[in-house]
Specification:
alpha/beta; Hypothetical Protein Ychn, Chain: A; 4-stranded parallel sheet; 4 strands; 22% strand; globular; tRNA 2-thiouridine synthesizing protein B; DsrEFH-like; Sulphur_relay_TusB/DsrH
Length: 98
């Protein structure tokens, strides 16, 4: 049996109320995968990748569009949305989108 975890898609920028709720849920989860897309990639500038029990993925196109070069402790798949959907379909306990 494969390990299950909570999958989060975050497209809101830091300091947004929805982002803050998302981060609280990730911390409570303890076993999460966080996918950053759109303005959500700005969270890499605030050290979101340091949350314990959380693997962070980021969309390459969105990083480039916002000139964000933070690559430490972040997985940047070639096909972000394909990896996200596969993770959601095969390994997901719960899915949250913000």
């Amino acid at each position: 049996m494969q390990e299950e975890y909570d999958v989060f898609l975050l497209t809101k920028p830091p300091f947004n109320l929805r982002s803050e709720l998302c981060l609280k849920l990730i911390v409570r989860s303890g076993n999460a995968r966080l996918y950053l897309a759109g303005d959500g990639v700005y969270h890499l500038l605030s050290g979101i990748q340091e949350i314990p029990g959380c693997l962070v993925y980021a969309c390459q196109e969105d990083l480039e569009a916002r000139a964000i070069n933070s690559r430490e402790k972040v997985i940047i798949p070639d096909n972000f949305y394909s990896v996200f959907i596969e993770d959601m379909m095969e390994n997901c306990r719960c899915t949250y989108t913000f």
